[in-house]
Predict the 3D structure of the following.
Amino acid sequence: MSRRDYLQPFAQASAEALAVFDSTSEDNAIIYVRVGEILRSQGFHTEASMLFDAAYQIDRGSRDYLLAKLLEQFAAGIEMLEADLAALEHLDAGFHRFLLTEIFRKAHPDDHAGILTTAGNCHEAFMTGSPADWTCLPNFRLLPTSAHGTLLHGVVVSYREDARDWRVFERDNANR
């Protein structure tokens, strides 16, 4: 079975995905990701995770494809393989920590300090404005003002309102 034969049933789940699929004769990780992102945006999380996995099988060194696969598995309620979690931690500890933060946040949505403690400085692995920022910043703002600039469960949290800037430092990095 060719990769295109594998991809077509997924693309048929969405008219937009099918249009992207039909517009190219490419057979590489990029087409799997393009169709996977369309399916993800339309709520087809299981299908998207399978396509991100196919992209990751082509490019085993891609932390982005592996993280996308795991986040879609998480969204679909699919159990993640320990081997995939270990591979993500090996490829990028920040991405791994972000995934663990998302898992913690789902289980404990009102534990803002716990979410930030789990996140640590994972946002540094991402570009500004990424999902990591949007996970951490709202939770930081929900902490009581008295907690700002203090040590919370081994993490120093600080916020400068004038610069709309926030920092989360692990204890080991707080004095650097």
Summary: Strands lie at 151-152, 155-160, 165-170. The CA atoms of residues 46 and 77 lie 9 Å apart.
